[in-house]
Amino acid sequence: YWSRNKDLRLDDNTALSYASAVAQDLHLPLVVLHIFSLGDYKSHDRSPRRIDFQLRQLAYLQKELAKLDIPLFTITHEGNRKEVPALVCDKLDEWRATGLYANIEYEVDELRRDTEILERTKKARETGKGWQGQVELMRDFCIVAPGQVLTKQGKPYSVYSPYQRSWLAEINSHLADYMHKQNGPVVANASSVRDHAVLGPMFAHEIPTSLAGFELEGGDDEAARMRKLWPVGEGVVDGIMRRFLRTKMQPAKFFEAPLESEGNEVDDPKKKSKIGEYCEGRNRVDWDGTSHISPYLAAGLISPRECIRQAFKLAGGKELPGGRDTGIGMWVQEIAWRDFYQAVLVAWPRVCMSRPYNLKYDGTVDWAEDAGGEKLKAWKEGRTGFPIVDAAMRSLKEQGYMHNRCRMIVASFLSKDLLIDWREGEKFFMQSLIDGDLGSNNGGWQWSASTGCDPQPYFRIFNPASQSEKVDPEGEYIRHWVPELRKLKGKTIHDPAAKLTKKQILDMGYVMPIVDHAKARTTAIEKYKEAAARA
Ligand code: FAD
To answer: So where does FAD get bound (predicted)?
Structure first.
């Protein structure tokens, strides 16, 4: 079984479960292989935080697999990423493996890599040279796989709402299949595998604790912080789901360590737990109203099927709810966004290659000049003079995570207020997020920049101050992340420059706004209109 970057778990893992069953049938040992392809990580802007998370989880999995006498072996490949298929086939040949089982990664480069493996083995079978085993690639990352639901015309959906309705109908019409775990548990190897000449020594293999070129910028301090914020290991994902499904929202208590803010269990979780109150909770950045499961879903420490199974169980009806009128239904809709964006990147692979979904904006937008990259730098560092933007960007820097509403606000700010190419933001997010995932990140950025599938219309531009009042009415989120503004009272915290003098702002240690929102809004609308006319 070839473990990928997005399926780092033993439970409900399609290819792993299948490989285990095949190994049992054939009375052959199961081996788990994981490749660190540094060329891929570099080219895909993989964040050191996500890599650190992956390494920690692999070390945990290695121990769990060893209990089943299954070795987990990793290879760090520093060369050209196009060499990975040859590397894998050679390794399998050396191990005299009979089969290779892996979950599909839907991004373009990964599909090309897997196609190359299929072609190599086909050629090997024809020529009798090279590894000739069986290759099975399986669908696992989504609940409803890309291409599984299509429009009446048999085309992929480019609008979310009808997609979500079909997605939900597909699940509800095969409810038993979706709600009953299809993937069996991983079965132990014979313990004699430990005496095997090639496989035995693999049990002593050590998972690296960091990868060259991807060390955490903040060294040991950052490593400790990440471990505390985003732990891995026994019971962690169960704990996160329980907190979200069974306990109460904790207003403004969770900023330091979102997964540690333990609320009381509630008697009627369907209504009063975090998921029960998700309709309002998800829109407040000062409330602990969302699950914080995204790093675990992105790297596959929990399967998305398990998420909806738990939601279904809590809802307690005959169907999986997916409407906007209950917290559970609303949360299920958010999980559907994840599948939607995967389906988009399969249907329109150009989005994986830094091109917009909407071809009207392909090379036509006249992005602003940013002399010396000063504005981009200020955005990255949380020094734009717009408190909600700065708070959000500082939370990203500290935690590798940002609330969804804030992701929308800072993405709109970069692409519309600063008129900086959204790809700069997409890249920076991938380099900083612990939950960075091409589909959701690209989808979110293209939504915000109005270039994507079913995006925010180009003329709807978030006003950072009024957004701030909506999502953080008391300013608690801002006060936490931008301590310079801690003493400000009332609405001033959302837009200090509207009430205070330059001197007052600078004396607090804060900065003046780097752009005039009203003017920037007019310019952005003009530029988007011009781009469309140019197309
Ligand atoms: P919850 O509200 O509890 O939602 C549960 C799960 O549903 C999430 O963990 C996630 O897997 C999925 N989900 C929720 N909202 C979305 C969405 N809009 N799009 C796709 N999936 C969603 N999400 C990522 O996982 N990785 C990214 O790299 C990423 N980049 C983003 C960039 C931008 C500009 C925007 C606007 C959104 C991005 N998102 C990304 C989506 C969303 O912001 C995060 O999934 C969410 O904030 C994670 O927090 P949570 O787990 O508490 O979410």
So the answer is: 278, 290-294, 331, 334-341, 435-437
Do 246 and 269 contact (CB within 8 A), yes or no? yes
DSSP letters, 414-478, are IIIIS---HHHHHHHHHHH-SS--HHHHHHHHHHHTT-SSS---TT----HHHHHHHHSTT-HHH
Q: Exposed/middle/buried for 154, CB within 10 Å: 0-12, 13-18, 19+? A: exposed
Q: Kindly report the CATH number that applies to the domain delimited by 142-179+235-347.
A: 1.25.40.80
Q: Give the pair of three-digit tokens for residue 531.
A: 């781009």
The question of whether 167 is a catalytic residue gets the answer no
Q: Which of 240, 299, 305 lies closest to 275 in space, CA to CA?
A: 240
User: Residue 256's pLDDT is what?
Assistant: 84
Question: Is the pLDDT confidence value at 262 over 80?
Answer: no
Q: Looking at the domain covering 359-534, what would its CATH class be? A: mainly alpha
Report residue 255's pLDDT band, with 50, 70 and 90 as the boundaries: confident
pLDDT in tens, 80-107: 999 999 999 999 999 999 999 999 999 9
* CA–CA distance, 283 with 286 (Å, rounded to integer): 9
ipTM value for the complex: 1.00
- Structure letter (DSSP) for residue 384: S
* Residues composing the chain: 535
pLDDT confidence bin for 251, thresholds 50/70/90: low
Residues 141 and 6 sit within 8 Å (Cβ to Cβ): yes
Judge whether 337 counts as a catalytic residue: yes
Q: What is the pTM of this model?
A: 0.98
* CB of 340 sitting under 6 A from ligand 1: no
Catalytic pick among 337, 348, 379, 481: 337
Contacts for 329 with CB less than 8 Å, ≥ 6 apart: 315, 321, 322, 323
Q: Is 297 in the pocket of ligand 1 (CB under 6 A)?
A: yes
Residue ranges, CATH 1.10.579.10, the chain = 359-534
Task: State how far Cα 331 lies from the chain centre.
Answer: 16
Domain 1-141 of CATH type 2.40.50.100:
no
- In the chain, the percentage of residues whose pLDDT exceeds 70 is 99
Place 257 in a pLDDT band, splitting at 50, 70 and 90. confident
CATH 1.25.40.80 positions along the chain are 142-179+235-347
Distance CA 346, CA 352 (A): 9
> Which of these, 285, 287, 244, lies nearest to 266 by C-alpha position?
244
328-362 residue pLDDT tens: 999 999 999 999 999 999 999 999 999 999 999 99
Of 64, 83, 95, 367, which one is the catalytic site residue? Answer: 367
